[in-house]
Amino acid sequence: MTIFKRGVSRRRVLQTGLAGIIGSGVAPLVFTKGAWAQEFCNNPTGDTVTFGLNLPLTGTYAEEGADEQKAYELAIAHLNGEGDGGLLNVLTPSALKGNGILGKKVAFVSSDSQTKSDVARAGATRMIERDGAIMITGGSSSGEAIAVQGLCQEMGVIFMAGLTHSNDTTGKDKRRYGFRHFFNAYQSGIGLGPVLGQEYGADRRAYHLTADYTWGWTQEESMKEATEALGWETVAAVRTPLGATDYSQYLTPILNSGADVLILNHYGLDMVNSLTQAVQFGMRDRQANGKDFQIVTPLISELMAKGAGESVKGIFGTSNWHWNLQDPGSVAFTKSFGAAYGTPPSQAAHTAYVQALLYADAVERAGTFYPPEVIKALEGFEFDGMGNGRTLYRAEDHQCMKSILVVQGNESPTSEFDVLNVVQEVDRDVTTYDPSIFGGDLGPAEPVPMCA
Amino acid sequence: MFEVIFLQFLNGLDKGAAYALIALGLTLVFGTLGVVNFAHGALFMLGAFCAVTVRMFLTMETVTVDPERLSPWGTPLEVREPLVQAWLGDFGAVLVNYSVPLSILITIPIMLLVGIALERGIIKHFYKRPHAEQILVTFGLAIVAQEVIKSIFGPNPIPQPMPTDLRGAADIGAFLGMQANVITYPLWRLIYFVFAGVVIGGVFAFLQFTTFGMVVRAGMADRETVGLLGINIDRRFTIMFGLAAVVAGMAGVMYTPLLPPNYHLGMDFLVLSFVVVVVGGMGSLPGAVAAGFLLGILQSFASMNQVKAIIPGIDQIIIYLVAVVILLVRPRGLMGRRGVMES
C-alpha cells in the first residue's frame, strides 16, 4: 500500500522489470551457446530426447531392418550409461559421457517402413509430428533413404541414414540434413574391380541383373564402369522388380547369352533368391567361352550369405564392415552385440549403431540440439575407433570416407556365422573420390524449417 | 536360338504348372458349388505353412551351454543339437532333408479337414446368395487366414530348403542327345512340373473313372435332377471342396523350395489364378489347366530380352492383356460353357 501512497516512479518500474527478467532466468540464456535459436522442430524440453527409428521390419530388406533395430536399442542403452558401453569406450575423439545426450535420457519410437519409400516417408512424418522425434535414423533401402532425407530437409530434422548404398543418397539427392556412414556403389566398384580382374582376368563378358530402383541403377553403373575398365564387355543389363521372388524368367536368357559372368545387383531377400536360383540353374557348374562361369554380388552381407547357404561359397562382393575384424572398435561392438543377442552383428547393425553414436557425439560437441549447429559439428568431423579405421564425415556431400572390405563366401565355414571371408581391406585413400562427380546440392541448413 | 526357346518353354511349363494347379481347385469349387472362392489362394498358402510347420518340428533343437568353449563374443558357447537326429540318427537326418515332400503326407488330411470345415461352416450358407456376397465373404476369410498365419509365423518369408539330392540342375540337352551343359534346368522345377501333371491327371481320372466322380459330374451338369434321384449331392460337393483344398495345399507345399512362403503368398497367386480361370472358362476343368499352361508359356516368352526390346515391360502385363482380349471376344473363356459369363 505504501507504494501507491508514495507513487510509482519510472525508475522503479524499470528496476522491477529488469529484476523480473533476470529472476525468471531469461538472461542466462542470452549468454548461452545456441540460445539464438531455441525454436526448432521438436526442441526437447523435458528430461528425455527421442530418436525416431525408421526400419524395414517387413519386406525384402526385413532381416537387415531387424538387425538395425537391435543395434539402435543397444546404442541407446550405451548412450544412457547401461551395459558395457560398447563403442563409447573406443570412439576418438568423443564428447560422450554415458549419461544420455546433454544430460537427457535417450528414448526411441519406431516405425515399420515395409521396404517401401512412401511408407518410410509416412512413418518418419508421424514420428516427427506425433512422437516428437529429434532425429530420424534407419532404413535399408536407398529409395527409403532418399525419400526420408528429403522429408527431413523440409521439416528441419536431422536424418542419420542406415544401410543405403546408392550413389544418389550423397550424390544428386544429397541433403544438408542427411548424413551417411555406409559406403556407396561407386566405392564398391573401386574396391571390387581390381580383385575381379586378378581372379577372373581381363577377357570376360558380363550380364547384369539389376534391382529396378535407385540403388540398383547406380550399382549397375558403377560395376559396369569398374569392369569395363578392366576390359570386360557388358553383354546385357536387365532390370528386375524390387521384391521379385521368381527369377527363372530372368535367368534362362543368360544361359545362352554368351556371358561368362553374372553380376547380381540385388540385395537382401532379392539377392538370396536370385543367387540361389542361379545356382539351381546350374550356372556355377557351367563353362562359357572356355572359362568357368562366375557369379558376382557387388554388395553382400553376412545375413544374406547365411540365407543363401551353400550358394554363396566362393562368391566375391563388398561389405562396409565385418564382425570378424580385429581392431578394438570391431571387437568391442561384436562383444556387446553378441552378448546381448547371441549372434554377431551385421554390417547394417554396425552402421546403425555408429550413426546413433555419431549424432549423439555431435550434439554433445555442439552443446545444443539445434540442427544447424549439430550439422556443423558433423561436417568435416574426423574420428577413429568405430571399426573402419580413421574416418572423415566429408562436409561437401555428408559421405563418410573410410576403408571398405572386399569379401568372399567362405568355402569351409567353421560355424553358422562364419560365412564370409575378408579378402582385402581397401584403404580410405583408395575409396576417396571427388564429391563433385555425382552433382547434387546439399541445400541450406538455415533458416530452420519448423515441422509443425 | 533353339536352346533359348526351349528353355523359355520349360520355364513356361513350370510357371503354368503352378497356375494350373490353383486354377484347377478354383474351377472345381465354381463348377460344383457355383461359388467364386476368393479364399482359394489362402488354401495354397496354408498348405505351404503345413510344410513350414513340419520342418519346424523336425528341426527342433536342444540348447546347452558349454562353459569350456567360448563364442566369438566371449560368452560361453551355446551348443545346439537337433532333437530328431539325436533320437533317430541318420534316419532323422533323412527326414529333415526330405521334409518338404514328406509334408505332403501331413498336408492331405489337414487340408481335407480345413476344406470340409470351411464349406460346412461358412460357404454353404452362401450358395444361393449373389456372387458379389460370395466374393466378399471368401475374401474376408482369406484375410482372416492371412492374419492368423502372420501372427503365428511373423510377416517375413521362411525359406524351405529342397532335398540336397534334388538341388542341382538336370542336363536335358545331354538327355536329348545334344551337347552337354547347353540346356540345363533346375531339377526341383522339373519335379514340380511332373508333380502337377500327376495331380491334375489324378483329379481328372477321379472324376472320369469313379462312380463318385460320375455323380459329381452329373451334379455339375444338373444338380436338381441328381438330387431327385435320391443322391445326396451336397455331401459329394462338400468332399469336392475338400479335394480342391487338398490340391491347393499340396501345390503350396511343393512350391515352398521355389518361393519362401509368407502370409501374403496366397494373394500373390490368387489374382493370377482368377485370370487363368477366366481365360480358360469359368467352370471348365480342362480350360483351367490349358489356360494355366498357356499363360505360363506366354509370360515366359514375353520375358525374353528380344521381346522386351520391342515392347518394354510386356512380361509384366501379358497375362492381363490376354485376359482383356479374351473377355472382349469370347466372354465365356477358351473352353467355357455357352452362357456362363455371357449373360
Distance between the termini of chain A: 47 Å
Main sheet attributes: strand count, strand direction, barrel closure of chain B:
2 strands, antiparallel
- Nearest-angstrom radius of gyration of chain A? 25 Å
Instruction: Tell me roughly what share of residues is in helical segments of chain B.
Output: 55-70%
Strand fraction of chain B: 5-15%
Shape of chain A: globular
Q: What series of H and E elements makes up the topology of chain B?
A: HHEEHHHHEHEHHHHHHHH
The averaged pLDDT of chain A comes out at 90
Largest sheet of chain A: 7 strands, mixed
For this structure, the CATH topology of the largest domain in chain A is Rossmann fold
Radius of gyration of chain B: 23 Å
Poorly predicted spans of chain A = 1-8, 20-37
Low-confidence runs of chain B (pLDDT<50, min 5 residues)? Answer: none
- Major sheet: arrangement of strands of chain B: 1-2
Query: Would you count the extended β strands of chain A for me?
Result: 17
The order of strands across the largest sheet of chain A is: 7-6-8-11-12-16-17
Global structural class of chain B: mainly alpha
Your description of this structure?
The complex is a heterodimer of chains A (452) and B (343). Chain A has helices at residues 2-6, 10-23, 26-30, 62-79, 117-129, 142-155, 185-200, 214-230, 248-255, 268-280, 302-308, 328-341, 347-366, 371-378, 428-431, and strands at 48-55, 105-112, 135-138, 158-161, 178-180, 205-211, 233-240, 261-265, 287-288, 291-292, 294-299, 316-319, 382-383, 391-393, 400-401, 404-409, 420-426. Chain A is of the alpha/beta class and 452 residues long. Chain A folds into two domains: 48-181 and 323-402, Response regulator (Rossmann fold), CATH 3.40.50; 186-319, Rossmann fold (3-Layer(aba) Sandwich), CATH 3.40.50. In chain A, helix 11 (302-308) links the parallel strand 11 (294-299) and strand 12 (316-319). Chain A is globular. Residues 1-8 and 20-37 of chain A have low confidence and may be disordered. Chain B has one domain. Chain B is built from 15 helices and four strands. Chain B has helices at residues 2-33, 40-58, 83-88, 90-97, 99-121, 131-153, 172-175, 187-209, 211-221, 223-228, 233-255, 265-280, 285-302, 305-310, 314-329, and strands at residues 61-70, 76-82, 169-171, 184-186. Chain B has a two-stranded antiparallel sheet. Chain B has a two-stranded antiparallel ribbon with strand order 3-4. In chain B, strand 1 (61-70) and strand 2 (76-82) form a beta hairpin. Chain B is globular, with a radius of gyration of 23 Å. Chain B starts with a helix and ends in a 14-residue tail after the last helix.
